[in-house]
Amino acid sequence: MKKDPAAVDIAGEKRPQRSGGKVFQRFLKNRLSVVGGLIVLLAFGGAIFAPWFSPHDPNMVNTQRRLSLPGTPGHFMGTDEFGRDLVSRLLWGARITLFVSITATLMALVAGSLLGLLSGFFMGWFDILVMRLIDILMAFPYFLLAITVIAALGPGLLNGMIAKADLFCGTPVNVIRESTTSYYVEDDNQ
User: How far apart are CA 74 and CA 55, in angstroms?
Assistant: First the structure.
């Protein structure tokens, strides 16, 4: 039996091997996971390729075709009260939703990481202030806080992204701050 050089570290102790292939094999064995993964890929693909996949202009009004039933020729899911094609509107709406979700998550990650680093590095009153503000932020119900932020900033897509980023920046702050302070505490003990 050959030894895997990646499974032995410098001191000769055995390390656990990575099991990326095993996780993927387990994923493929579970039918519901595969079906869910295909649905997510289909949604992402439809959102990304909406300009090429949408059968009609999503904003084109056709009052003669308003409230068409699903299965109507040319309109697979039917039309809305203004005669706009629902498939096209769904694809273009998914595109906007994907953009807003990714942007807000990145904003929360960057702001939370920066605050966590600063809080962990500058301990003392700054750390206490940041962590108490994060505790207050995380104590509020998310929906109420989002409505409050949007009411303060005003309506709009950018303000909605800021509100969503505010909601989810608490976790990165806690994780980064804890890892930063534990690094400095371990360094001081040595």
Answer: 8
